[in-house]
Amino acid sequence: MDRRLNQVPNSCDVLVVGGGHAGVEAAWAASSILGDGGRVVLLTMDSSKIGVMSCNPAIGGLAKGQVVREIDALGGVMGIAADASGIMFKVLNQSKGPAVQGPRAQCDKVAYAACARRLIASRSNISVIEGTAADLLLEGDACVGVTCSDGTPCRAAAVVLTTGTFMRAIMHTGSRQVSGGRVGEGSADGISGALKRVGLELGRLKTGTPPRLRQSSIDWDSLTPQHGDETPVPFSDLSSCDFPRLEQVSCRITRTTPESHDLIRDNLDLAPMFSGQIDADAGPRYCPSIEDKVVRFADRESHHVFLEPETLAGESIYCNGISTSLPPDIQDIIVRLMPGCERAEILQYGYAVEYDMVRPHQIDATCMVKSIPGLLLAGQINGTSGYEEAAGQGLVAGVNAARQSRGEDSIRLARDEAYIGVMLDDLVTRTPREPYRLFTSRAEHRMLLRSDNADARLTPLGRAWGTVCEARWTNWEARRDRIASIAERMDTMPGESGKNLAALARRPDVSVEVIAEKLGGEDEHRDVARVMTDTRYEGYVKRQQAEIRRQRDADAMRIPESLDVDAVTGLRTEAAEALARFRPATLGQASRLAGVTPADATVLAVAIRKSHAPS
């Protein structure tokens, strides 16, 4: 593994800063496209921390599981690592329709990170360098590399920053403050100043993590178990053999108590989230601290706490539901007031972390900074939360960094193509004041963006980009043919009352097992379920596709950089201000900005057409 930077100018094609989930996907995607003739450098403070799961060692969930499947369909690695390290697999929302179901895996955090490191090490065109980026190297307005904290320059045709929670990061436990973005690690301070100096607007966010308990100190058997699915479903299409690989475990449920709520209220002045000690805009609304929960839901006498094993190689148990920044002695009492945890031993106390981010209206949906060609941002630096959101951005940034190094046009994913596209469009048309998290409700085309059809939606696209390998492509072609065969047989085989099997499959009371048996019993149930879902959603999908065609017309209309929005007659001041701030690339993006009405969009469309008309 490389330890020193190559000081030769243009020493690499793509430089990725940060070895978290965004950095891993960015480096992998870029290396896939560049091949043996290219060079990717992954710059990280500690190479042993590549792929580390800083918070809950779980992958997937509602909307997030769809993103993992999309990453896999595009040739990424998150699904492969999750399948190799999963210790409890469960599809969430199984009582609801396939459009809102989400696969999730509790992972062994040690095994997950080890798999990520192995994958990165398997690529001969990826060099891992230990160091910290302190400044940007610029030529004109373009980024051509970074300068490390020791003064060493590393030049590149494109730079991807994936700094996570490490930019000017401070960790808080009670009144104690320690510099760092993760327990036991440091902070990347110089790069924040560098981003400010080049004119980028920064924000400050906060997040937190709960205490970890020793499993043998918990009355485990007294608590209600939570089991995974009897037949686990893998994330990756390359994981069909030898799955699941690790021993499968169960989680447990406990709860907070009225006594612990009283204790939290009495000590809010000691919680940095409330005392003003943390200088940040907001924390994650959908993963609040226990202090937030007690204040916001004052009528609740308890909150569920899920006790989730972090690794088969140790006793660490993650307390999902009591993220906190309270002092250690208060955390001790809160934990021991939970049923089954009366004698629990805390292995690591919870803490909050505040960190710098870049307001994402300054990037395009390609992850490229609008004002600085060659500089791309991915992950929590863009104001998102979650491993999956970070990884999805990392993949797009890696693809576009590689294309930048080749002088090729950037790619974008549309809102109707992927949840990753929904996320990036949301980021560039809104300014998040809290860590952004994906939900199925954010996707207006969620019937199309299911976890079961991610391969059909995206693998051909990944093949065209160069991120999909031969093995994955062969696997996809085989499944495509199997599904086409099932659909054809369902259309021609008799069902009931003189109708075909497809008509029977549309009935909500008919199971996959019934249709599979009528097909002859030799088809994979997963493939039969996919065809049944396509059949049941057919009418809705046709209506959505009509809406998509209209939206694509707007998204195809590029806004000229030379267009002076202040000079557009009939455009309201609020709309002009929003357009000047966000600088949308297309009419479709402009129409989704807060402050831009349908009438404003019509006026803007007329101005765009006039700007293209011959003078």
List keywords for this structure.
alpha+beta, six-stranded antiparallel beta sheet, seven-stranded mixed beta sheet, DNA polymerase, domain 1, disordered N terminus, 615 residues, 20 strands
What features would you describe in this structure?
With 615 residues, this protein is an alpha+beta fold. Among the domains are: 469-540, no CATH class; 557-612, DNA polymerase, domain 1 (Orthogonal Bundle), CATH 1.10.150. Helix content is 36%, strand content 17%. The chain has 20 helices and 20 strands. Strands 1, 2, 6, 7, 8, 9 and 20 form a 7-stranded mixed sheet that branches. The protein has a 6-stranded antiparallel sheet with strand order 14-15-16-17-13-18, with no helix packed on it. Strand 16 (304-309) and strand 17 (316-320) form a beta hairpin. The longest helix has 23 residues, at 470-492. The radius of gyration is 25 Å and the shape is globular. Mean pLDDT is 91; it is low at 1-9.
Count of DSSP E strands? 20
Average pLDDT across residues? 91
Q: How large is the count of helical segments?
A: 20
Q: Percentage of helical residues? A: 25-40%
Structural class label: alpha+beta
Q: What's the layout of helices and strands?
A:
Layout: E1 12-17, H1 21-34, E2 40-44, E3 58-60, H2 64-73, H3 78-85, E4 86-92, E5 102-107, H4 109-121, E6 126-130, E7 133-139, E8 142-148, E9 153-161, E10 170-173, E11 176-179, H5 190-197, E12 202-209, E13 212-214, E14 224-226, E15 251-255, H6 258-266, H7 272-275, H8 290-296, E16 304-309, E17 316-320, H9 328-336, E18 346-348, E19 351-358, E20 375-377, H10 387-405, H11 419-429, H12 454-465, H13 470-492, H14 501-505, H15 512-518, H16 525-536, H17 538-556, H18 573-582, H19 587-591, H20 598-612
Helix pairs in contact: 1-10, 2-10, 2-12, 3-4, 6-9, 12-13, 13-16, 15-16
